[in-house]
Amino acid sequence: MMRIAWSRLRKPQDAEGLQVSAKFHEALVNLMKTGCRLMALALFLRLIAIQGPLLMQKEHQLQPSLDISNMISYPLCCLIVLCPKVLTPRTLDSWYLVMQTLCVFPLLFTEPQDVVNVSLITAFPRMLCGIGARTCFLPILGNLVNCGVAIYQAQEDADGGGGAGGLAQTAELCMVLCGILSMRQGLYENVLMNTRLKSRSIDLEAVSQLLLGFCDAVVEIDGSLKLTEDSRQLSTLLLHNQGEGMTGEGLAGRDFLSFFCQEEPSFGRGKRGKSG
């Protein structure tokens, strides 16, 4: 059964599960730090675009309901960028609640006809925060609250666009949640695969070192019986360096059976030894 990273209801008990969970949370922290850098840059550009009209005592053309939220979000993103230690696996949920609240807050002061546009503007930050949340149900709950507030605000549209707004918000909710689900699942599977590969590599190296105490040479072969890595030990054992002038580095990719006599009964490919 496929393990869904964001929907697990109990903590892993085995050593591998604990290790994967810890590395998964570290990956979420790194993702949030990268996202905060992007958001800080975007918010900085928006603040510059606002300052021009304000200096000329004119109103800017951007959504005014996002001004307060962006003014609070910008220093928070800068804090995470300049002081990355404030963002840890233990504080992921706290930061998610703060960022999600700043995304929902502008909807309360948005004109009904602009609710859909404002919600779409905050869709990417909400998706980014949802991917970085530590607890599984917080992204679902946060986006449900956002969708409910947006639909409630859109119903006050005097032009009767509340129904269309509700449909748009439902579609946006599905898009954001699907994005969060796919990204978190892909990230978790990547961490799981890397952890298992590293563990198997360590186990294989340990077994190889153990076998060297009992064998003259240890080699690795793939499913087609070809050497998967260099083997100076095998080269020395078969005196291949002197026979063909080939060093140990050249054995990778060679057919393992080519080092045996074709008349050998166990390794022959068509010929059999003569019977006495």
Task: Name the descriptors.
single chain; mainly alpha
Number of E strands: 0
Mean pLDDT: 77
Structural class: mainly alpha
What is the CA-based Rg, rounded? 30 Å
Span between N and C termini?
Answer: 57 Å
Supply the number of structural domains.
2
Report the sheet-strand fraction.
under 5%
Please tell me what the overall shape is: elongated
The main β sheet shows up as:
none
Per DSSP, the total helix count is 9
List low-pLDDT spans.
1-12, 240-245, 267-276
SSE succession: HHHHHHHHH
Report on the structure:
- The protein is mostly helical.
- The chain folds into two domains: about 15-200, no CATH class; about 215-265, no CATH class.
- The chain is built from nine helices and no strands.
- Helix 3 packs antiparallel against helix 5, helix 5 packs antiparallel against helix 6 (about 135-155) and helix 5 packs parallel to helix 7.
- It starts with 14 loop residues before the first helix and ends in a 32-residue tail after the last helix.
- The model is unreliable at about 1-10, about 240-245 and about 265-275 (pLDDT under 50).
Structure in a nutshell:
This protein has 276 residues and is mainly alpha-helical.
